[in-house]
Amino acid sequence: MKANSNCKRLFLWSGPRNISTTLMYSFAQRLDTVVFDEPLYGAYLSKSNAHKYHPGAKEIMASMTISYQSVFNQMLGPQKKPIAFFKNMAHHLFEPDIKLMSKGMNIILTRNPIEMLPSFDKVISNPKIDDVGYKAHVDLLNYMDSYKLDYVVLDATFLLKNPERVLRKLCKACGIAFDPTMLEWTSGSRPEDGVWAKYWYQNVHRSTGFQPYTEKSDPFPKHLLSLLKECERFYNVLVSKALK
What we know:
Mean pLDDT: 95
Number of helices: 13
Shape: globular
Helix content: 40-55%
Number of domains: 1
Low-confidence stretches: none
């Protein structure tokens, strides 16, 4: 297939455990879209202390480009389909790059920290604010406002409660047609999955679509309460702008 240098680029800037992989799988169902799984992960690990505690860090860095500029060039290069969807974690981007972010629609995906933090803690225990993306999201939002960049905010709860409605609004904001195939898929892994999938993607691999939203009933871990308070002030800014 001939590469397309003028494709529409969608840059997802998510936090961890925010159903970002589910959203990537949703876009992967479109015949007009190519998806990329966290292309900045290796660069982030190589430039931070996170390589000391992220599972599979050495394998991840060995599997992908660890130069930020090289990854940016790949993201802005010709693609094989009319739409390119890049799933990224907001905190993987140490500094916003206007040359990159001005070339597409930026999508911020957040989730209520009272639901996200216990899930993240099961894989990486005792996380800090820099691990979970909330401050990075608000910093990114302020940056995009200052440069008048195109962006839209999604909240995982609203998306799970009504996937079709929110996806229709998202597609409209991105300037693409909604495709009903985005609502379901075959269970199992995808070839685009990063090598870290074995640590994080078990639930997505069992899914065949967006899982119905259910409120968490387990008691909130006491050791995460101070982090929850810190995250909530950032989350409140984000959720006020989210599509419903």
